[in-house]
Amino acid sequence: MGKTKVISGLFNTFLSEKRKEQVEKTTLVIAIVSYLIHLLIIFLNTQGIIEIEQKFFKNPIAAIYTPFSFILIFEVFLLVYHLPKSITAYIGKQYEIITLIVIRKIFKDLAYLELDSDWFQNKEDLQFTIDVLTSLILFFIIYLFYKSIRKREYISIKKTDKIGNSIRRFVLLKQLLAIILVPILFIFAAYSLISWGIVTAKDYNNGILEFTNINNVFFDEFFNILIIIDVLLLLASFFYSDKFYKIMRNSGFVISTILIKISFSSDGMIGNTLIISSVIFGYLMLIIHNLYEKNAVPNKS
Q1: Residue 28 in contact with residue 195, Cβ under 8 Å?
Q2: What distance in Å separates the CA atoms of residue 289 and residue 148, rounded to the nearest whole number?
């Protein structure tokens, strides 16, 4: 009981509803300030007061990219916040994050957009088209994913009392993992910011370029941690359930996270295809899992 109280106390300290609201307000303030700073840099650049060659700092539309970067950090915090509540909701947050990354990339694409008759011959215009279509597909699949979660909750709500003790132990483990993830999140964020600052101080132009590819600075590494967490959750799930369909669903979620991670190191159509494939794969795993659960397929393993 002592350990339970300590873990619950730490969880309420770092990941309570009140804490979430505080982090949300702070993030919004930082996002607004960063947006205004980016707009100021664009103004100074277009007036010739400073000189930056990248179009990213010449088009005001591209400034939306900057506050989105901070909003995405908050989305990662929400992912950690939802981890103890539901594995499926936690995975859904991963899908939301990768979709918002694609949306943010569209704002960067707009800065390089060239309206001409050879639309599909221009690399930047083609990438913009691919990203727009990718975001629409992801948005729809995530809608279906969450709709399936709601259906599953109605199916499972009566079963919770029968396995209450094992579920509580599993929730406690997820709370512990969430507590561990909180400092890791802020350490990665601080490390990414410091690393970017060092690169910028040494070579200003490279620093600007590094900022526009900030996925490689933060999200790439953080998804490595998420893969480890997903595997731990998969292994821990064996302690409260040996049902084949649950093992398959959790294994599928691990594969889905790995595909998202791989997409960060892939460019163009390949990267977008990996992202869409990862979300579709996770959604289909959830659908099949729900069919097993709904029809009470006996487990012979």
Answers
A1: no
A2: 10
pLDDT tens by residue, 72-97: 888 888 888 888 877 888 889 889 98
The residue type at 126: L
Q: CA 55 → CA 61, 103, 109, 212, 239, distances in Å? A: 11, 18, 10, 11, 54
Higher per-residue confidence, 100 vs 299: 100
* pLDDT 10s digits, 127-163: 888 889 999 999 999 999 998 886 555 444 444 444 4
Phi then psi dihedrals of residue 160, to 5 deg? -65, -40
Q: Which two tokens stand for residue 169?
A: 């132990």
Please give the distance of CA 104 from its chain centroid, rounded to a whole number: 12
Half-sphere exposure of 264 (CA within 13 A, CB side): 19
**Could you give the CA distance from residue 63 to residue 37 in angstroms, rounded to a whole number?**
9
Count of Cβ atoms closer than 10 Å to residue 149 Cβ: 16
Specify the pLDDT at position 224.
81
Query: Which residue type occupies 64?
Result: I
User: Chain-centre distance of CA 275, in angstroms?
Assistant: 11
Tell me, what amino acid is at 282?
G
Number of C-alpha atoms within 13 angstroms, CB side, residue 32? 5
Cα–Cα distance for residue pair 41/44, rounded to 1 Å = 5
Question: What does the pLDDT read at residue 276?
Answer: 94
Q: Are 170 and 236 in contact (CB under 8 A)?
A: yes
Write out the DSSP string of 250-281: HHHHHHHHHHHHHHTT--HHHHHHHHHHHHHH
φ/ψ of 218, rounded to 5, equals: -120, -60
Q: Using CA atoms, how far apart are residues 78 and 19, in angstroms rounded to an integer?
A: 11
